[in-house]
Amino acid sequence: MARMSAEERRESVIRAATAEFARGGYHGTSTEAIAKRVGVSQPYLFRLFPGKKAIFLAAAERCVEDTIRTFAEASKGLEGDEALHAMADAYTRVIAEQPEWLMMQMQMYVAVGAAEQDGDTEFGEAVRAGWMRLWDTVHLPLGADVNETTTFLAYGMLINCLKAMGFPPEHRVWEGMYPSARIKGRLEH
């Protein structure tokens, strides 16, 4: 078996960190757990990343970039309602198939809030920059309409919360969602 390059190992750390942080959050996840999941020593982990914060921010960045890519691919060549429903459908499919993606997003927001309270703005700056790239990715296909963009992202955050809390797809709380975001069985927990 060929040895992994440092870049391949770095990728495996980001994947493992996403799974661990999604489950345990920033403060509840040890670098030891991440290293164990990857199959490397902690000292090797710290040759790839300078510390736990850098690992978390790399996982957060990946989560945001994957969401941006999902929206961009789903809306390619579409505008308005067609783009909206394509993006909603793609997103609900991804969070149903990859629950760690959803939970990592939720953990990002918690980590930013906790860090900001402690006077650490680095978490917030990185996550806010990613959020603005996400905003721009959604904004153009929705006709550069600020209200449509806000509504779409607000629905997305509500979907995140409902899914994270385990509301089954047939529950009445889903009735007000876009049809593409509440397809029966799509949001099964």
Can you describe what's shown?
With about 190 residues, this protein is mainly α. Helices cover about 70% and strands about 0% of the residues. The protein contains eight helices and no strands. It has helices at about 5-25, 30-40, 40-50, 50-75, 80-95, 100-115, 120-140, 145-165. Helix 1 (about 5-25) packs across helix 4 and helix 5 crosses helix 6 (about 100-115). The chain is globular and about 50 Å long. The chain starts with 5 loop residues before the first helix and ends in a 25-residue tail after the last helix. The mean pLDDT is about 90.
Strand content: under 5%
Rg: 18 Å
Distinct helical segment count: 8
**How is the main sheet built?**
none
Helix % is 55-70%
Mean pLDDT metric: 91
What does the overall shape look like? Answer: globular
> What is the string of SSEs from the N terminus onward?
HHHHHHHH
Per-chain topology:
Elements: H1 6-24, H2 31-38, H3 42-48, H4 52-75, H5 80-97, H6 99-117, H7 122-139, H8 146-164
Helix pairs in contact: 1-2, 1-4, 1-6, 4-5, 4-6, 4-7, 5-6, 5-8, 6-7
Give a short synopsis of this structure.
This protein is mainly α.
Which terms would index this structure?
189 residues; mainly alpha; 8 helices; 70% helix; 0% strand
